[in-house]
Amino acid sequence: MQPVYDHILIRYAELSLKGKNRSHFEKRLQLNVRTALRNFENVKVKRSFGRMFVELNGEDVQGVSDTLKDLFGIHSLSPALKTNNKLEEIKEAALFAIKDALPDEVGTFKVSARRIDKTFPVQSQKLNYELGSHILQNTDQITVDVHNPDVEVKVEVRQEATYLTCKTVKGPGGLPIGTGGRVMLMLSGGIDSPVAGYQMLKRGVDLQAIHFHSPPFTNERALQKVKDLTKVLSRYAGMDITLHVVPFTEAQKKIHEVVPGEYEMTIMRRVMLRIAEKVAANNKALALANGESLGQVASQTLDSMFTINEVTTMPVLRPLVAMDKLEVIDIAHKIDTYELSILPYEDCCTIFLPPQTKTKPNRTKANRFEGNLEIDALVEDAVERTYKQKLSASEETDKEFEDLF
Amino acid sequence: MIYFDNSATTRPYKEAVDTFVKATVDFFGNPSSLHPAGKQAERLLVQTRERAAALLRVHPKEVLFTSGGTESNNLAIKGTAYQHQSRGKHLITSEVEHASSYETFKQLEQEGFTVTYLPVSRFGIVHIEDVKKAIRPDTTLVSLIHVNNELGSINPIEVIGKILQEHPKVLFHVDHVQGVGKVPLDLKKANVDFCSLSSHKFHGLKGSGMLYTRSGTKLSPMFAGGSQEHQLRAGTENVAGATAMVKALRMTQEAAWEKTDHLYRMTEKLIEALKSVDGVYMNTPSERAPHIVNFSVPGLKPEVLVQSYGEKGIYVSTKSACSSKFAEPSRVLLACGFSHERAASGVRVSLSFENTEEEMSTFIDYTKEMIPSLLKVVNK
Questions:
Q1: Residue A300: phi, psi to the nearest 5?
Q2: pTM for this one?
Q3: What is the extent of the structural domain holding A18?
Q4: ipTM surpasses cut 0.85
Q5: Which of A140, A173, A206 is at the close of a domain?
Q6: Nearest CA to CA, how far is B377 from chain A (Å)?
Q7: Which residue in A has a C-alpha nearest to residue B21's C-alpha?
Q8: Using a CB-CB distance cutoff of 8 angstroms, which residues of chain B are in contact with residue A405?
Q9: Which tens digits make up the pLDDT trace of B89-127?
Q10: How far is A173 from chain B (nearest CA, A)?
């Protein structure tokens, strides 16, 4: 019988360090893997001794690996062949694996066998030799290179079966989503905030997003773009992400009317932060997150942060604070948000922008200007009218288009 | 009707036509318009592109919608030639390309480009060594057909892609119009920079095609105008055509999973049967695509054969539909080294997943009866 990949081996790195919490982290990762693979009906996800196995049961190995390779908490994964603990079967599987990993049958390899089941009669060194010779005898242009091989055939003889892996796909690392508490991401639709969301997801948080929408000054396409970005992020979350949309037109108009131009942006940010804090608290989030990078624009100078941050006691996490724009763009490309982010629609940060904005606002003045606004009422009203929508990466198609494809 | 001319065009899937009608009527807006109708059409186009990309296993921004195979080939070839002409004006192709590539190269020659037309073997494919030898410091493009539209022969695209990896400045265009759904091609693995597809060859509608443009490549656009299709193809997008194409592509790929063996069985049966008919010469090589069989009956004009089949409601063609109106020998068959007479008498049978074993049996029975009787008349 021709061997096929029957499961995928998942390794996790940082998790192993987490002491007594480890089983909690592992269980969460297992749940996330199951959720991510919910469309592959036949797969089974199992844990054993610091590893996780996804039994394919006939599902497409490529599709499953592609889904898993973006899941946080996974260090690497390898599609694995499973055979009986019989030398002849292991040999055949090794040959199959190398031909699959080197389809042109050109390249170098080495065999690394481990015998966890010490009752297996062939010792590791001998097994290396046996499998290596079998591959060499049955291929023409594949040679051994023990130092820098193109492919390493890893063989583990365990009690229950023998596992062979050839290729290793790197995962994103980080911690499993859902182990880090809930965070509310302020998502504008620019390049930075989706990357900030991604960085937060990497640390295992349960992410929700909040967006400020000011129709008719910001158009439906801008909101759609934010929804699409949320869907991309939900791919990395491995689950739906709730997007809270704040109708911000009224508040923004008021601020524009009352506050002097150079403080408009500062006050607007303070109001947004207050609204975000409320929405976060209502949804049991313990922190806010945004895409600010120190000194990037007027609202992101240290003076601005100091003045704007005054209005909340909730932690404001800024994962990009010490990153250069180009580093952020690199990540945006990698996570597939860049192309969406650069679509040229107005967002709530760019409309009503006065010709000049204070780069060094101070708290005293900010508070004084806010005296002319009914801040609490503005915030309450916006929070009340905020609506939410769950967005999922698996809903690639709008409902109205479904039957078209 | 027994329709065996699927390399010329296919009957559109009903589902693809339904999609076209619905998309045309319900989402008629111009994707560039700012109002909700425009936004909706844009949205449909975006999601169509995502679907296309997923089916081809590429990135959405690498998918360009065009008007069909001819435009895709023209855009890839001219677009590359013009874009990089300051670096070099040497281009490489083969002698058995489809007219939409071949004539494009002829045109470029008149404009001062130098073109190497690689010869092909008896089996209709280029020699790897010839490709290697043809590459010069001023070469900017290699353009090859994957599955030959007349013969069904398969060029070793993956191997050539590997060779070209050592020449990062030489771009690689593949005309995959006949191969879609029939002979798999992994664009990433084969290191392909541009790849042409045509909707009506896989049960979509005429007037729609695709060009895969690998991210990082540049093309000089052929049309001046708006900034549609990543500024590479001006003109209001044919959203409904593209959506119908994606539907047809998905259905074709699904059919390919189940029915490729079935296609091979039918054509194998035909090839076997033709062996026993005197005066018939097989032009299609044994390493071939599942759906095309080309044979010659020297002495019989192919038009006569096509008409005789036609009388029985069986539709086949002579050479490529795009060149079959000229009564000249097939350029492709001549390039394979066949005699003038044999090259002038080629008949092409091309199947789709919709054809049945019964149809093939009928075809074979009729062929066995008709060819000897026709030969008897002309050989008198």
A1: -115, 15
A2: 0.79
A3: 5-173
A4: no
A5: A173
A6: 52
A7: A404
A8: 19, 47-48, 51, 243, 246-247, 250
A9: 999 999 999 999 999 999 999 999 999 999 999 999 999
A10: 24
